[in-house]
Amino acid sequence: MRVASILDSSAKGHPERTAQSADKQKKIRFPGSEGFQTVLKSRVNAYFARLNRSPRDSVRMYVKTATIITWFFTSYAFLVFAPLPTWAGIMISISLAFAAAAVGFNIQHDGNHGAYSGSRLINNLMALTLEMVGGSSYIWNYKHNAMHHTYSNIHGHDDDINLGVLGRLCPHQKRFPFHRYQHFYIWGLYGFLQIKWAFFDDFKHTVRGHIGKLPFPRPKGLNLLIFLGGKLFFFSLVFVIPAFFHPFWVICLFYLLTSCTIGVITSVIFQLAHCLEEADFPEPDPQSLQMKNEWMIHQIETTVNFARKNHLLNWYIGGLNFQIEHHLFPRISHVHYPALSEIVENTCREFGIGYFAHHTFLSSLKSHYLFLQKMGRPA
Ligand SMILES: [Zn+2]
To answer: Could you tell me the distance, in angstroms and rounded to a whole number, from the CA of residue 374 to the centre of ligand 1?
Structure first.
């Protein structure tokens, strides 16, 4: 195993590389490392070298993928083909939603980051599982890998903290009087996230060639074919195949239940990483567009971990409770994050860098609620 290649090999969605090209475009700059980055990377490299373990292609990940895909299609088959009473249909619908969210958290997320395998083909195949649950891996690569991972919590550059006028997720966003109630109503909005992606956002981004304020190349050729084919596959799965067995209004009601459950689960898990009282929302210098901290420190100070000892949650959400490690090393498979977390936390302590982790899921959820309440109040 070539240790030097662990953190530097090229594959789809390398955040530091996309950061550089995006930086040129928008001119936001992160200062060079003063040592922290070098020390941390060398310790992580040493960890993999010592155990002679690859940061990708974990057997656990392949087993997990088979389990989640089986869970997803078994739930789908029962829901569409089995003659179920309504109550059982509702239960299976919720099971399908949890399975779909698990596809998003685990398989497509690692695949799109190039963290699943050393093989670009396998990463791309795993990335395509996003199409199965209504998204677009092409759009995700720009929105999530390039923009969110490079410019975490920077207003106007990180589209994940942009809810338009509906919510205020950052102290630099304009406040409207109705934001005073956002800590109550935002959970309902989260429910429509999957529908918004599948039916509206991906098409809007593709037509406009912009995600938020940032331009990106519209899909062309094979990418356009995959984009359209993916949407066709998803709509067939959701509406066309069930139409042979159920009335259309029943299909719509069950789709609504499933997609709203997916929306709430995925929104909450992703929001608990950055939209909390403990996370920073730094701005670049208005003249030079230079950020104060080097890129890795910026990632740590804008990100919060939670429930690191909850093994079930860790399995289900694909290590997204270790978001600090994920933001620092997005090309390492999430199955390694618990081990890396100790290295990262100790190195942060040595360098006097704040590393924050909530002990439980509920304390993190409470922090998100209080953050929404604070952002909704007048300054
Ligand atoms: Zn990510």
So the answer is: 26
Return phi, psi of residue 214, to 5°.
-95, 130
**Residue 14 DSSP one-character state:** -
Q: What was the pLDDT predicted at 211?
A: 87
Structural domain count, the chain: 1
| Contact yes or no for 30/154 (Cβ under 8 A) | no
Contact by Cβ (8 Å): 229, 221: no
The alpha carbon of 110 and the centre of ligand 1 are apart by a number of angstroms equal to 8
Its pTM stands at 0.89
Distance in Å, CA 13 to ligand 1 centroid: 10
Separation of CA 181 and ligand 1 centre (Å): 29
pLDDT for 282 equals 95
DSSP 239: I
The whole domain housing 333 covers: 3-376
CA–centroid distance, residue 18 to ligand 1 (Å)? 13
Distance 26 CA to ligand 1 centre (A): 21
DSSP reduced 3-state for 29: strand
pLDDT digits (tens, 9 = 90+) for 263-308: 999 999 999 999 999 999 999 998 888 999 999 999 999 999 999 9
Using the mean position of ligand 1's atoms as its centre, give its distance from the Cα of residue 115 in Å.
10
Backbone torsions φ then ψ of 210, nearest 5 degrees: -135, 145
Ligand 1 centroid to 82 CA: how many Å? 36
- pLDDT band of residue 26 (cuts 50, 70, 90) is low
